[in-house]
Amino acid sequence: MMLCILGRQPELGRAELAALYGSTKMIGREAALISCDSFDIQATGGTQKAGRLVLEIPHTNWPAVSRAISEYYLPKWQAGDHKITLGISVYGKTHVRPRDVNNLSLSLKQKLKKAGGSLRALPSKELTLNTAVSHHNKLGLNPHKIELLIVQNDGKTFVAESTGAQNITALAKRDQGRPKRDAFVGMLPPKLALMMLNMAVGEAASPQNELVLDPFCGTGVILQEALLRDYNVYGSDLSDKMIDFTGANLEWLQTTHKTGGKLTALHQGDATNATWQNAKNITAVVCETYLGQPFSATPSPAKLREVQGNCNAIISNFLKNIGAQVAPGTSFTIAVPAWRNLTTKYITRLPLVHHLADMGYEQTNQKPLLYYRDDQVVARDILIFKKPLTK
What we know:
alpha/beta
């Protein structure tokens, strides 16, 4: 059993895990348990840390939890001849304080020293080590660099031993290291692109049999992440400039990263009326659609209705166009705009999200999956659906 610590918007991480591994058991809002033999955290976008569950304690009493952890680990560490590097992170609804966590680390260090062992404790002013610290210290990547992930919720304590943290350095390189970037068209974060791919494709038994289409490819972030997952890709965009940018970025990717997939086609095309070559071979459509104009403040009701109507028309026409071309069973994960009122926090969604069935699709997620920053008006509303199999 694996315990996953989810990202800033955990609903997205949970949806990703469900697509990859089936059912998930949430522990509070930020952690999930999944049943799998192996877990590659770098193949996910919505999981910040992951670990193998080692203890499930039927209470949250910290002194007793500390004793249980000591009794479990000290015999293991005393038997080794390597210095242990230890970090501890505590999540969930808990009354534990940072000094309690540091006291546990120091207690383990002192007890191990008396037994002839050695331990380096990573101090923290917070309950959790941030992902950068975990990754920098390579916690979970060998038996002597350990992070304990402790989650307390509903009267229970779960303890997992980390198997690694999200490689934020690699994600940043794939984002900021690309030769062509364009802030005007928006910059889809690679980790969100990876989440969307996983939601669409799931756990592919044969990646080489997958063909992922991005009909709004922009600078090619989704195609990039799909190639790294060994999928074949197909890109199109309304703008010739974006096609040039995508081409340059994918050439850069081939020289800087190991990729197993191939680019099958890349061309200019308006998604509302384009014809895609061999569309019946497309297995998944993953894209960030037209998000409308950006806003730095909540727009007036009249302006919001105008922009909403424009986006709804463009994206509806796209879905009707592509639905007539792809084969039954084709999966979709698309980002469409939703608008946040920064004062009331009310979310305005596109009308089409309630009418996908009328366009011939079966929707997977009924609850909104939103990706946004706290100061952002235009959010990405993630929709997961399929063109149903012919009955």
